[in-house]
Amino acid sequence: MENKKIEQLKKYTIDNEQQAGLTTNQGLKMAEDEFSLKAGLRGPTLMEDFHFREKMTHFDHERIPERIVHARGVGAHGVFQLYESLEEYTKADFLNDTNKTTPVFVRFSTVQGSRGSSDTVRDVRGFAVKFYTDEGNYDLVGNNIPVFFIQDAIKFPDFVHAVKPEPHNEIPQGASAHDTFWDFVGQNHETAHMVMWAMSDRAIPRSLRMMEGFGVHTFRLVNKEGRAHFVKFHWKPKLGIHSQVWDEAQKAAGKNPDFHRQDLYEAIEKGDYPEWELGLQIISEEDEFAFDFDILDPTKIWPEEEVPVKIVGKLTLNRNVDNFFAETEQVAFHPGHVVPGIDFSNDPLLQGRLFSYTDTQLSRLGGPNFHQIPINKPVCPFHNNQRDGMHQMTIHQGQTSYHKNGLNNNQPEPVPVDQGGYEHYQEKVDGGKIRGRSESFLDFYSQAKLFYNSLTPFEQQHVRDAFSFELGKCKSEAVKNNAVELLNRIDRSIAEEVANNIGAVLPKDNLEVKSANKSPALSMATTVKKPDTRCVAILLNGEPDNAQLLQWVQALAANKVNFSIVDKNLHTIDGELKVTDTYDTADASLFDAALLISTNGKLENKAIEFIEMTFNHFKPLGISVSDYAALEKSRVTINEPGIFDLTKVTINNFVTGVAEARFWSRTV
């Protein structure tokens, strides 16, 4: 299956690195491509210069409208492998046959910013997966956060308008720290749960490879007997869930705005293929109302302690795109792209998305034939009576283009359900026409409190700091006060601290949810911790012991730790190791740890700045100095947690610290 998709894409591939004559788009060989056709060397350009007109016209139309949300994205190809058959729950072929390898394309993205915004902003991340199955394309279009801001799709334009740069001045870009967003939050309390997640470390991931993915909505799985189960989809990263700290994320945005997309690209190029396991939460239809939350509410999770996650397969990204525009930018996702055995629930946000995504692609990709673009084309044949339209790339033969027809033996004809034809689940629906919200959707605060209760003290402090930063950027006192009033309904301690920090009014009455319930799965503190693919900056200050340096580098490599050697200038060490970065080009915000090797009695100022930032961001720091007095000018305290004196401990101790990633008990 994977090879089938690769071969299909190769049909549309032109390798411009191969020797070939320059031609126009019509195949005409051109002898000149530097000068337009003129009447004399200093005369006017002539209208008959078809080559100039073709080249310039194509350039003028190279860009397509960017996505309204999720504009900033990066994609990669990969495969999905099923661990065990799920035929008990679904008839979807790719979830039944463990011998099949299903090719996929995955696009990660931020939500708020434009294509030119930075990767490391505080934002929700899109996590969209296109499965190229034998039964058609299936798109699982989700986020790295399992809930959303709103309950009904009719409010989606309002939410997006509020979170986007404000229309009067187009500020701020790639950020939610402004009045209109927090005004929306204060006026729409269904956002309470989501803003807790958005203000947590989940919204500033260390890497796209180190974040969870969620289908967000409640879907249905339907088996061959027609029995249905409700399901939520999870992607669990094999490297664990890890984040940046806020100061680090802001600095990285300036030092390398492409930090996440470069990290993903380089990992795949090195063969450090990112992996996630697919998990399912499954609820039988009989238990739809067995919980103290509505399972159709997109602002609610199904706590994993109540509904365990069943791990069923693995996603591996193993190939970068050949052309960003043709693949990552033109890929078209849609939650309505399903296969037999996967169906929808009555989640009102999902129902609206089923309309919106097709409508969006018509504008972005220029018409109804976007499914014929190679990255969107299914691996299985497709036949129907849809013809013509802008950008039609198929030459249809035959007299008939309608159903039913007798002139062509009614071809193409509908496929019976028992032969793979799709059939919507026959759910009984009975109710009067109404615009409104179910009473079971009205608890806005309990799960917001559950999320906060489940965090460790340092994670809770990060949430309070994030609210203080975001609301501190707002200008309207009413917006600040309304947001604090919302926080007061979740947790009084958050409201008190934030109100004090931003000068807002704390409500007189404590209206917080009275609950001590926790869900350990919501904290990132207990996640998988590995040194694999972490990146260490080896800082040189003076002339190192080359044999010792080589030994340490080999130990890092043996533990799958990446490294860059940083010095004042680029050079080769002993003919074996290369200094790959200078203190001018490297920055502590772009590394997971630092290893300082100093043979001088004085540290360079930029080396001091580097280790101080590493220290302040709670990262592991290895120290090998010939004169400890050299550290006195810095604010690094060598006896603090996560500081490894390599004159006293081994490099493997430092590697263990790299795996730990952060030392939150450190005094900074």
UniProtKB/TrEMBL annotation:
Question: Where do the annotations place heme binding?
Answer: R67, R107, F156, R353, Y357, R364
Q: Cite the Catalase core domain residue spans from the record.
A: 23-411
Pfam families per the record? Answer: Catalase (PF00199), Catalase-rel (PF06628), Catalase_C (PF18011)
SUPFAM superfamilies to which the protein is assigned, alphabetical:
Heme-dependent catalase-like
**Covalent link 3'-histidyl-3-tyrosine (His-Tyr), residues:** H334-Y357
Which InterPro entries does the record cross-reference, listed alphabetically? Catalase (IPR018028), Catalase_clade2 (IPR024712), Catalase_clade2_helical (IPR043156), Catalase_core (IPR011614), Catalase_haem_BS (IPR002226), Catalase_immune_responsive (IPR010582), Catalase_large_C (IPR041399), Catalase_sf (IPR020835)
* Cofactors (names): heme
Per its UniProt entry, which superkingdom is the organism in?
A: Bacteria
Q: Which GO terms describe its molecular function?
A: catalase activity; heme binding; metal ion binding
One GO cellular-component annotation of the UniProt record comes to: cytosol
Query: A GO term (biological process) for this protein?
Result: response to oxidative stress
What reaction does this enzyme carry out catalytically?
2 H2O2 = O2 + 2 H2O
EC number assigned by the record: 1.11.1.6
What positions does UniProt annotate as the active site of this protein? H70, N143
Please provide the record's keywords in A-Z order: Heme, Hydrogen peroxide, Iron, Metal-binding, Oxidoreductase, Peroxidase
**Family assignment?**
Belongs to the catalase family. HPII subfamily.
Reported function = Decomposes hydrogen peroxide into water and oxygen; serves to protect cells from the toxic effects of hydrogen peroxide.
- Alphabetized PANTHER family for the sequence: CATALASE, CATALASE-B
Q: What is this protein called?
A: Catalase
Q: Which organism is it from?
A: Niallia alba
